[in-house]
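REQUEST FORM: STRUCTURE PREDICTION
Request ID: SP-0412
Submitted by: Lab K.M.
Chain count: 1
Length (residues): 361
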Amino acid sequence: MRYALIGLGRIAPNHIRAAKSNGLEIVAVCCRDPEELRLAMKRLELDHSKVRAYTDHRRLLSECAPELVAVATSSGAHAQIALDCIDSGANVLVEKPMAMSLEDADEMIRRAALKKVKLGVCHQNRFNKAIQKMHQAVEDQALGRMLYGTIQVRWSRGEAYYRQAAWRGTWADDGGCLMNQCIHGIDLLRWMMGNDVIDVTAVTARQRHPYIEGEDLGLAIVRFANGGYGMIEGTVNCYDDDFEERLCLFGTEGTVCVGGLATNRMETWHVRGETDADAVCRENSQESENVYGSGHDLVYADMLQAVAEDRSPAIDGQAGRRALELVLAIYASAQQGQPISLPLLKGSALAFRSDFGADDS
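STATUS: Completed
RESULT:
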């Protein structure tokens, strides 16, 4: 299958590695900045004689006709580029968040269905061994009635990170820590707790990063339709380095916790009837070099299988929309100082651009 990658930033190596491991024919890459494009071609070890380099994604789509395109640009550009890819007839994998507004997300979903192409979203941690084992326990009702779940994303981002690109931390192109760093964990919590949300109550703050527009701390309580509750803690204020991303589920028949840098290690498996928790934890843990985890290979494998079988990807546009919706509901609750009911029919990160003053440090 002919493949192209649009956007060559920090996550690009994961995409190129996944494309290669799944046997895709990499025909083109795209980056708006010519110098960054040149450096990325070298960094990613892409052969100029086989891979064409573009600064205009529309020209890439027209001249190379890729069958699968991954969109890994700044978040604010995801929707329009994805729509252009869909309109060209390409299947699309888009990085998280899939869009910065629910209206754009809905149009991506609608257009993909109209054009009969597949739309997937890179919430790759769903494919972690520990997460798969946890979700199977939920599906099998091994934990009994779900009481509550927690996600804690405790990472560190300093000024050097945000100065790497002008779009980082802006409401138009990035959002705050919940939209960027914590949306993977928010996706996992909602997935585990049955997806359907009644309402969310939240606060956000900007404590240490006066040079960004968004929040660097978010706290929320979620009420799920199944009677369970969720607690969300997301921050990039940890001292000096990334600490952990931890997801815990508490049911009437069991407690399961997955930790590590990127929900990659099974740390607690206390389930009724299970006698060898140590073995379960050992067999369902894997190392992670960084916070991006190692799930992109399986995201790609699933997308290729979805195309071959003409089915929806495991992490489709609706899944991406649900994660985006919950983040936007958290922002709305923090802004309005009251619970926000779901579902949301519309919403955009741009609605929160005046939430913080020039300096909240």
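NOTES: The chain has two domains: 2-124, 126-293+322-352.
Reviewed by: T.R.
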